[in-house]
């Protein structure tokens, strides 16, 4: 089976962007439990990358040699399928799903723990994200192409014993950076056109989709702290003291989420209804200028 010819769809980038937005707008999985009528995600931002962009090989030095390139991900999938096909081109479809205003507002009011809406967004929202990835893989295959959702493959894992703290074999933030969706911030979060209070996802395929230009010269350009020397509001928002002008301490962050926050919620009498293996913490992603957009001034909060 050969990949779909680009003439089959005059604008594949537009087709997939509209498909992602339509899916999120209409899927019953994008519904906030216990909050009738509320959605988990608002309209996504979408970007595309050339899977053979040299940046992906650089990630093996930046993140670790365990990090998988898009071509490696697709070729492993094809090898497993035993179809004997070698893709000429490899492309990445990446997206950012933004938390709703209601969820972000609920988190702005918090100083120690995550709100129930945020917890649901982390877990129920990720399930919707995973289903979206599978939906896109099926779309590509229906068009005669090949696709894989790396985060759902058996080889995907988070490496714990690496310098600098846990890192995955398929970093959605780094994939999104390569796809022109934004840059990193002081807190280690990803600042996209729809802000930092987001969940990222991606698939790899062999369709000839034009890559999205990276409209930033550096990997920290969307962060006010790095751009202007001001801001640093995420430092004050972190109850674990895991963020400083030196960056993000993953060990402190993880310990607070997994061990400290559940105790605080119990002491507050608010632990009922939370789901997942940890509560999730988005305090540094909310109540900050980059919460819902790329910030234009240090005082803006959408």
Give the tally of β-strands. 10
Describe the global form.
globular
- The quaternary structure here is single chain
Fraction of residues in helix: 25-40%
- Helix/strand/pairing class, anyone? alpha+beta
| Side-by-side strand order of the widest sheet | 1-2-8-3
Q: Could you describe the largest sheet, including whether it forms a barrel?
A: 4 strands, antiparallel
H/E element string?
Answer: HEHHEHHEEEHEEEHHEEH
Q: Report mean pLDDT, rounded to a whole number.
A: 93
Query: Which stretches of 5+ consecutive residues score pLDDT under 50?
Result: 1-8
* Cα-atom radius of gyration: 19 Å
Work out the count of structural domains. 1
Q: In whole angstroms, how far apart are the ends?
A: 47 Å
Helix count, per DSSP?
A: 9
How much of the polypeptide forms β-strand, as a percent range?
A: 5-15%
Write a structural description.
With 302 residues, the chain is of the alpha+beta class. It has one domain. The protein has helices at residues 12-26, 54-62, 70-81, 101-108, 116-142, 172-178, 224-228, 233-237, 250-268, and strands at residues 45-50, 91-98, 147-148, 158-159, 167-168, 183-184, 190-191, 198-205, 243-244, 247-248. The strands form four sheets. Strands 1-2-8-3 form a four-stranded antiparallel beta sheet, with helices on both faces. A two-stranded antiparallel sheet has the order 4-5. The chain has a two-stranded antiparallel sheet with strand order 6-7. The termini are far apart. Mean pLDDT is 93; it is low at 1-8.
Short key terms for the protein model shown above:
10 strands; 302 residues; 4-stranded antiparallel beta sheet; alpha+beta; two-stranded antiparallel sheet
